[in-house]
Write a sequence for this structure.
């Protein structure tokens, strides 16, 4: 088992920002990338947090990640937008996409956006959170153009990515619903985290390079590669296929039909934004949503559980805990971050000092 470091947020933020400067990013880009990665760690999604930096570094050095890139509007029909991310940081082009879409949805009542050619968009829930903060509903279908890591139902090798779906819904008088999940039974990054920690996966989550069941996460991390399984058997596979068609073929004009050798991670994302006030004037939607959630949460807790939690609630609870206890980063992941910093011509010793709260 790997050792676990616990870093306080301000210190870790200073350290990670120092790493991100190595990409040649503008100050605004440094802030957006750093804060987005740390937000993923704070919510408990370490698979999408600072541990992504070594992968970003490899992609950058290969030329697959383009710092300081911004979205380009290819198609503009008012409430229907086609956007190109030009392989820029997903934390930047995703942010710009949502700002544009929110403005259009406020004007027209809805907006559909097809974003293609975005480097890793990280935790999709972050984009839904931007929308619900403006009282908008957000629906996202995402494709992943990278090395395939997930097998189709009844298939024995990898044919597509983790292809997440996310839905954000504002609820009057309550925290929003943020449903954000990979269509694989676990995110690929969670297999990386398990491997770095020296932990096994649960049965049914992964197959080896021969197509046989295993619990060893190495088959999602190193050659010879196996594949993650889809959640819910054929149902998760069906949703993954839809993400490839909507986020890939429609939004990105590209689907995963080969085995790329590069380390880049390109995402396509089809986003639908809806202003519920334009469909349900007054507070009927808010009151009905709140009443239903209260009804669901009133279900007696099953033995051994804390009771019903609504999507987004576990993340908020984890965030509150980690703001006090610190953000855990296993020693293998931290070593890889320091090695990435060195490749970016940043001083690993300075980064170590910053993470420990020493300027």
């Amino acid at each position: 088992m790997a050792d676990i470091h616990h870093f306080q947020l301000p210190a870790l933020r200073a350290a990670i920002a120092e790493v991100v400067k190595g990409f040649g990013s503008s100050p605004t880009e440094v802030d957006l990338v750093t804060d987005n990665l740390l937000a993923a760690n704070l919510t408990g999604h370490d698979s999408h947090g600072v541990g992504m930096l070594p992968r970003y570094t490899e992609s950058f050095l290969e030329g697959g990640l383009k710092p300081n890139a911004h979205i380009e509007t290819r198609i503009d029909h008012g409430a229907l937008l086609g956007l190109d991310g030009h392989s820029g940081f997903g934390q930047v082009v995703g942010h710009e996409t949502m700002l544009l879409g929110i403005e259009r949805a406020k004007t027209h009542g809805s907006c559909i956006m097809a974003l293609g050619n975005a480097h890793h968009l990280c935790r999709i829930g972050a984009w839904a959170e931007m929308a619900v903060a403006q009282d908008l509903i957000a629906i996202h279908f995402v494709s992943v153009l990278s090395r395939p890591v997930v097998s189709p139902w009844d298939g024995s090798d990898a044919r597509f990515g983790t292809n997440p779906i996310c839905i954000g819904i504002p609820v009057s008088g309550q925290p929003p619903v943020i449903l954000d999940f990979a269509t694989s039974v676990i995110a690929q990054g969670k297999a990386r985290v398990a491997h770095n920690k020296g932990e096994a996966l649960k049965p049914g989550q992964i197959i080896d390079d021969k197509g046989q069941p295993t619990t060893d996460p190495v088959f999602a991390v190193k050659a010879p590669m196996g594949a993650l399984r889809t959640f819910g058997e054929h149902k998760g596979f069906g949703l993954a296929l839809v993400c490839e068609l909507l986020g890939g073929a429609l939004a990105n004009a590209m689907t995963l039909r080969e085995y790329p050798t590069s380390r880049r991670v390109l995402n396509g994302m089809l986003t639908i934004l809806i202003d519920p006030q334009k469909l349900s004037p007054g507070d009927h939607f808010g009151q009905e949503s709140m009443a239903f959630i209260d009804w669901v949460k009133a279900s007696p807790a099953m033995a051994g559980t804390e009771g019903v939690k609504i999507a987004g609630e576990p993340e908020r609870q984890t965030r509150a805990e980690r703001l006090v206890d610190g953000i855990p980063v296993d020693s293998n992941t931290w070593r890889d971050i320091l090695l990435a910093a060195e490749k970016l011509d940043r001083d690993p010793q300075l980064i170590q000092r910053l993470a420990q709260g020493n300027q």
